[in-house]
């Protein structure tokens, strides 16, 4: 009797992959996209730089007055003057003037320093009597001058490929006259939430139906100025799932599903991946929550199959999808973040890595992680009370105060922060 052919999406890969090995596999499956685009600086906040930006001129571009006051020359010796005649004033935006010998010249903050001046005396240290300026004693040569290039010299590297442009970088580039930058094109992500019971938020539920939380949650968790996310809800129908997978894979970099990853009678995602021409490299991860999780490819697109329970979805997105998107955007790997656990776990016989929602805070110079609520992959309230998940190794006893890796909800370089 002939044996049945192996199922490409079940038995050959139906083994439990360790958490660290799965993370390494996820990173190895992706590389930066080659798509770049030029965007106006005003639209570049949060985007990932694709090409270096170099200063074409100095900042400040010329010697400037740092205070409202009077420009004089002290470098000729003879001691500071008691009084000098006022000969002209330079406003901010005026071309540089020439300081006549033995005179004072009015200047405004940010205005060009007159040629020949070596000191600015702030207006509070002077008195004006008629056309003459009286100076207080104790003047210091070189005071209150911003030298050309003291902030940024010509040729300085302002930003590197892979940098996420924040408000401070936008301000710096604008000050140097840079009106547009080359950034990574948006990463295209399709999120397919599967389940015949799902209804959109805001709709009226009938018996047995629930509101879809995974789709909106993933769109918010993965969304950024550098991503384009399409949400689709698909019923528990193998053909419908396969058709949507194939359609998404033709135009997206990353195709993500939720639910349907187990082997129950209505779990069709594995078979649908095969039907759409895809392959799976992994279908189970030794993590809790989130064991039924897959990595693979459908055409040129990366496929990530997440479980259906929302806490498991969030943990999978933080541990796998966020780092994969960083690579696609050309970002360097984020350095691991560690916090002192303010909770304990007894010796665990479980060989799965536990991901625990935690609240981060700073105490006496240390980052502290407190458990945010009871365990349960179906629970959303602990996630809403948390700002990170702690990564607890398998077969470990976690003592209070021990360091654990944490995966923050607000990624480094965003407007959020670690801790409240």
From TrEMBL:
InterPro entries per UniProt: MoaB/Mog-like_dom_sf (IPR036425), MoaB/Mog_dom (IPR001453), MoCF_biosynth_CS (IPR008284), MoeA-like (IPR038987), MoeA_C_domain_IV (IPR005111), MoeA_C_domain_IV_sf (IPR036688), MoeA_linker/N (IPR005110), MoeA_linker/N_sf (IPR036135)
Biological pathway: Cofactor biosynthesis; molybdopterin biosynthesis
Cofactor section: Mg(2+)
Keyword Cell inner membrane: no
GO cellular component: cytosol
Pfam families in UniProt: MoCF_biosynth, MoeA_C, MoeA_N
rRNA-binding recorded as keyword: no
PROSITE patterns, A to Z: MOCF_BIOSYNTHESIS_2 (PS01079)
Superkingdom of source: Bacteria
MoaB/Mog domain boundaries: 190-327
EC number from the UniProt entry: 2.10.1.1
Keywords: Magnesium, Metal-binding, Molybdenum, Molybdenum cofactor biosynthesis, Transferase
MF terms in GO: metal ion binding; molybdopterin molybdotransferase activity
Any single biological process term in GO: Mo-molybdopterin cofactor biosynthetic process
Catalytic activity entry: adenylyl-molybdopterin + molybdate = Mo-molybdopterin + AMP + H(+)
Family, as annotated: Belongs to the MoeA family.
Record function comment: Catalyzes the insertion of molybdate into adenylated molybdopterin with the concomitant release of AMP.
Name of protein: Molybdopterin molybdenumtransferase
């Amino acid at each position: 009797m002939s044996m049945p052919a192996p199922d490409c999406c079940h038995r050959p890969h139906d083994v439990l992959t360790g958490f660290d090995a799965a993370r390494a596999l996820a990173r190895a499956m992706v590389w930066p996209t080659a798509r770049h685009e030029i965007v106006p600086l005003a639209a570049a906040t949060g985007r990932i730089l694709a090409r270096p930006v170099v200063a074409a001129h100095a900042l400040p571009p010329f010697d400037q007055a740092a205070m409202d006051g009077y420009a004089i020359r002290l470098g000729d010796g003879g001691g500071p003057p008691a009084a000098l005649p006022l000969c002209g004033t330079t406003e901010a935006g005026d071309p540089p003037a020439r300081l006549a010998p033995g005179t004072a010249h009015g200047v405004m903050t940010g205005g060009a320093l007159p040629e020949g001046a070596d000191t600015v005396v702030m207006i509070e240290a002077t008195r004006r009597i008629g056309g003459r300026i009286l100076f207080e004693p104790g003047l210091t040569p070189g005071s209150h001058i911003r030298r050309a290039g003291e902030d940024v010299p010509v040729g300085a590297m302002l930003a590197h490929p892979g940098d996420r442009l924040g408000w401070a970088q936008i301000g710096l580039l604008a000050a140097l006259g840079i009106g547009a930058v080359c950034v990574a094109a948006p990463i295209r992500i399709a999120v397919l939430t599967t389940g015949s019971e799902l209804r959109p938020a805001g709709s009226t539920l009938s018996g047995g139906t629930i509101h879809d939380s995974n789709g909106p949650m993933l769109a918010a968790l993965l969304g950024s100025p550098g991503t384009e996310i399409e949400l689709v809800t698909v019923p528990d129908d193998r053909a419908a799932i396969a058709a949507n997978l194939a359609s998404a894979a033709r135009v997206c970099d990353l195709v993500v599903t939720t639910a349907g990853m187990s082997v129950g009678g209505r779990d069709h995602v594995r078979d649908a991946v095969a039907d759409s021409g895809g392959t799976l490299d992994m279908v189970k991860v030794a993590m809790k929550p989130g064991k039924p999780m897959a990595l693979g490819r459908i055409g040129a697109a990366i496929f990530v199959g997440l479980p259906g329970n929302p806490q498991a979805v969030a943990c999978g997105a933080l541990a796998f999808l966020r780092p994969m998107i960083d690579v696609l955007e050309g970002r360097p790997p984020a350095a691991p973040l560690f916090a002192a656990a303010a909770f304990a776990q007894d010796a665990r016989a479980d060989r799965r890595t536990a991901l625990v929602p935690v609240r981060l805070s700073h105490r006496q110079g240390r980052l502290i992680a407190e458990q945010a609520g009871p365990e349960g992959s179906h629970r959303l309230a602990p996630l809403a009370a948390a700002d990170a998940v702690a990564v607890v190794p398998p077969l470990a006893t976690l003592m209070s105060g021990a360091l654990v890796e944490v995966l923050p909800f607000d990624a480094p370089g965003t407007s959020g922060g670690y801790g409240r």
